[in-house]
Every structure is written in structure tokens, then in C-alpha cells.
Design goal:
disordered C terminus; binds arginine; 490 residues; four-stranded antiparallel β-sheet; globular; single chain
């Protein structure tokens, strides 16, 4: 059983000052969701990215120091890794000239490639492959004979150092990776995950374009569909593509010289990286960051791709009783598509495999907008509510937190966008646990992530312990678990 400190909430110091409140989207707020992305927000410098259907590169063919070190997923053997963003193998060089928006390039001379590219030479571990194939055939006997398949895989590994999953194995592996994700409370629907097999996609441009397709399909006009897109795997001597963003949609955090951050401080590093790669942010509080992708086709160097404005669904926040709430100019994107975790199935690592479910309100209302080192909205909300902030014991934070969460749930409902609440999700999780028990399976869970960040003890999941087994297939982070990088639950 881990202690609460394992949540890492205290591991990262809060910024010395609260983020500035200027530049909010006040005035744009209305009851309907909006499709607003970078292209819509900045016609002057992002015009090239304004295609309607796909992400487009906006320049830069340099890499930077900073964000590039990390560990690889277990499938790729951490011991051999020097960095998560590994290069070449394929030399399909991109013509920078064709992709560049003439208006966006910043001086590339100031940043230089400093990314380490470990050799990926070790073959896939046959034991890991066999363990997965046995699991698959046990749960899906119609898939065929284990022995035959294992002989096939062994000879593929002998020949190429790796092996190819069948479509059925891939879909099963992705769903079970979700089922095994011990930090996720929303696993009841693991079997409904839609799997998009894009293992043939490994260029940065195509990865970006497919991310946009994923986001649109998963958003589904507000009726969100759990979905994963699996890109090319790591192969010996030929690493798959990497998406450097934490999610497809993230808000920029602009670091000021005095240490304060305007926007989302969580994304300050990625924002600096994107800026150094040629992206030009508008300096707003909710600017959508471009995708940062590296691949063999870019020689392993990261490039930025703006998301088309009509691909990103956002919800502006209002409160059912407080009319002033819209003046705060708060909003959030509809779909959390995680992009910085690799999918490991049977010893094979898929380093780019964006996946999404739908939001639980508290993720936004009790973390993203409330944490002191995120948007830190509680003082402002409490002030507007007229609460006594001179004493902790007035519980002004607690009252403001509840009303912020009311606003988040209310606004997603009003916008017709799927969102769950922490009480419903706690119940569903216990239903999932019971089902897994009936199926005679272990359901690993990390208490410190499963218990919601608001009203913990008012939810059933608080009042028990869980098995913490580390099962495969699973999702692993590349570098986010390194000290200093997003240590806590997201
Ligand atoms: N907590 C993250 C965020 O606020 C999202 C993590 C995944 N959440 C989910 N409901 N699938 O953006």
C-alpha cells in the first residue's frame, strides 16, 4: 500500500506566484461547446496549419536541449536507453522547404540538436511474447493454437529481432493494457476500446495527421468514444515515432523571467520547446499547443504541427447559480488523449499509441483548474463567493472547490459532452472489480490514484485496499516519471 506521498502532489514546488489572470477568454463564453484551435486563434502566424482535416507542420527542423532525456519503456529495456526520442534507421529526409510556414520560423541558430539516440538492437524477449500469446489464447481460444503461433513468433524473432502481432492480438493487447492500468478508475468499459491499427504509419507528418483523425473520431460531436491509435512499433535498429506532448490537446504555459507562468504551468517545458521549434504562441491563458513529434522521417528530430481549429472541441465553463462564473473565462478541452505513454504488448513496445476515455469532472475541477501549481482558481472563486479567506478554518478552499466542480459538470452537460462524476465512477469501478473477481483475474489498482481528489471518503473506493500487481500488457511512460517531470497523478 503506497502512502499519499506516492501521488507526488507535494513533490513539485508550487510556482512562487500565482499565474496571471490576464488574457482570459472572458466574453467568448457561451453555453455551447466551441471548436477553437490554434489555427483559428492566430491567423497571422499559424495560417499554414489551418487545413480543416489534419495537423500540418509549422516549421523547424531543429531539436533542442532540455526535454529529450528519459527512460524507455520496459519492453525496450531501460538499461540500454539514453533517451526516449530515438532516431534513425530510416533516412526519409523531409524537405523542410515544403512544410515551412514562412511567417513562423524563429531563429533556428539558437537551438541545436542534443538528443541522444540509443541503439535499439536487442531482439524482443521470447518469454514476454509467449506469456502474452498464452494469455490471449486463454481468453480468446478461437484465436487458434498456442504452440503453432509461438513457433511462428520464434522464427520471426530469430529472423528480424521482433515479431508482428495479428490484428486480433493487437486489439486484445491494447484492451488488456487498459484493464491492467492500475491508476485508472474508469476501466469498467475496457472491452469497448476502439483500436485503430496504424502500425504502417511512422512518419511525423502522418502521425500528426492521424492524431487529428483520432481526436475527431473520439470526440464524436461530444458523445466521446474510448479509442486508441497504434503507430509503428520500435524494431531493432528502427525506432517507432514519438509524440512529445503529454496529450493531443494541452494548453500552453508561458514562462516569464520572474518565474511566473501564464497559462498551464504543467506545460511550461513543452511550451518552451514548441517556441524554440518555431511555434508562435499568442500568449493566452488557454492556447492550444502544437503537436511535437519525432520520427525516423525527421531523423529523430522533433517537429511541430498545429492542430486544425475545428478538430479541438472545448467547453467554456459556467455555473448553474453564479452568473459571474463565466467572467472567469475558464474552459477545458473535451477529450483527454494521452500521448506520452508507450503500449507494451508481449515484449513489443509501441512508443506512440494515443488513447482516450472521457473525463471525470474532478480531474478538471479538483486538479487542473484548482491545483496551486496549475490554474489555481480557488482564491478567485472564493473571493467572488464572498468567503472568508483570512482563516483556513472557514473552509473557503473546500467550498470553492465544490462549486468549481459543480460548474465543470454543469458545463459539460450543457454542452452535450460526455463526462462522468466521481461518485458514479467509484461505483462503476467497484462493479468492474467484482466482474474481474468473477472472471478469476487480478484487478490491480493504486489507491492513491483511484481515490478521487475531492470528497475521497464520500466515495466507496476510499474504504478498501487493492492488489497492486504489475501486469502486462500495460502502458508505460517514457520520461514523465523522471524526477521533476510531472510527478503526480494527472
Ligand atoms: N488527468 C488528466 C487530465 O486532466 C487526464 C488523464 C486521463 N483521464 C481520463 N479520464 N481518461 O487531463
Amino acid at each position: 500500500m503506497k502512502t499519499l506521498f506516492n501521488r507526488g502532489r507535494l513533490a513539485r514546488p508550487a510556482p512562487s506566484q500565482t499565474p496571471s489572470k490576464q488574457g482570459s477568454g472572458a466574453g467568448q463564453v457561451e453555453a455551447r461547446p466551441e471548436y477553437l484551435g490554434v489555427a483559428a486563434a492566430r491567423p497571422a502566424n499559424m495560417a499554414m496549419s489551418a487545413t480543416r482535416t489534419m495537423a500540418r507542420p509549422i516549421g523547424l527542423e531543429t531539436a533542442v536541449t532540455g526535454l529529450g532525456t528519459g527512460v524507455m519503456c520496459p519492453a525496450a529495456r531501460p538499461g540500454t536507453a539514453q533517451g526516449p526520442h530515438r532516431g534513425p534507421g530510416q533516412a526519409q529526409a523531409q524537405d523542410p522547404g515544403t512544410a515551412q510556414d514562412p511567417g513562423t520560423a524563429q531563429d533556428p541558430g539558437t537551438v541545436r540538436a542534443q538528443v541522444a539516440y540509443p541503439e535499439l538492437t536487442k531482439p524482443v524477449d521470447m518469454d514476454a511474447a509467449a506469456e502474452f500469446i498464452r494469455l490471449h489464447r486463454r481468453e480468446c481460444p478461437e484465436a487458434g493454437d498456442v504452440g503453432l503461433r509461438l513457433r511462428e513468433i520464434r522464427s520471426q524473432i530469430d529472423l528480424t529481432g521482433t515479431y508482428q502481432h495479428t490484428s486480433a492480438e493487437l486489439a486484445f493487447g491494447a484492451r488488456v493494457a487498459w484493464r491492467n492500468s492500475c491508476r485508472c478508475i474508469g476501466r469498467l468499459y475496457w472491452q469497448s476500446l476502439q483500436v485503430r491499427d496504424r502500425r504502417n504509419v511512422d512518419s511525423a507528418d502522418d502521425v500528426a495527421a492521424e492524431c487529428a483523425v483520432h481526436l475527431r473520431a473520439a470526440t464524436n460531436g461530444g458523445r466521446i468514444r474510448p479509442m486508441i491509435t497504434v503507430y509503428a512499433p520500435d524494431r531493432p535498429g528502427r525506432p517507432g515515432p514519438r509524440i512529445w506532448n503529454e496529450q493531443i490537446v494541452r494548453y500552453a504555459g508561458y514562462q516569464h523571467p520572474d518565474g511566473t507562468v501564464h497559462g498551464d504551468p504543467r506545460n511550461a517545458d513543452l511550451t518552451s520547446l514548441a517556441l524554440s521549434l518555431g511555434w508562435q504562441g499568442e500568449g493566452g491563458k488557454f492556447d492550444i499547443l502544437p503537436l511535437v513529434i519525432s520520427a525516423g522521417s525527421t531523423g529523430g528530430q522533433p517537429r511541430v504541427f498545429g492542430l486544425a481549429h475545428d478538430v479541438v472541441l472545448e467547453v467554456p465553463f459556467s455555473h448553474p447559480r453564479f452568473d459571474w462564473f463565466t467572467e472567469l473565462g475558464l474552459r477545458w478541452h473535451a477529450v483527454p488523449v494521452i500521448t506520452d505513454m508507450c503500449l507494451e504488448i508481449g515484449g513489443v513496445c509501441y512508443p506512440a499509441a494515443p488513447f482516450n476515455g472521457w473525463y471525470m469532472g474532478a480531474e478538471i475541477g479538483a486538479r487542473n483548474l484548482a491545483d496551486c501549481d496549475r490554474y489555481n482558481q480557488l482564491p478567485e472563486i472564493a473571493a467572488r463567493m464572498g468567503l472568508d479567506r483570512s482563516r483556513d478554518r472557514s473552509l473557503w478552499r473546500d467550498q470553492a472547490l465544490v462549486e468549481l466542480n459543480v460548474a465543470v459538470l454543469h458545463s459539460f452537460d450543457a454542452a452535450g459532452v460526455t463526462m462522468t462524476d466521481h461518485h458514479t465512477e467509484s461505483r462503476r469501478f467497484l462493479t468492474h472489480l467484482a466482474r474481474e473477481e468473477r472472471a478469476k483475474r487480478i484487478c490491480p489498482a493504486d489507491w492513491s490514484w483511484i481515490v478521487p481528489p475531492i470528497s475521497g471518503s464520500a466515495t466507496e473506493v476510499f474504504h478498501r485496499y487493492y492488489d497492486e500487481a504489475d501486469l502486462r500488457p500495460n502502458f508505460f511512460r517514457h520520461d514523465r516519471d523522471l524526477p521533476g517531470l510531472h510527478p503526480g497523478p494527472g
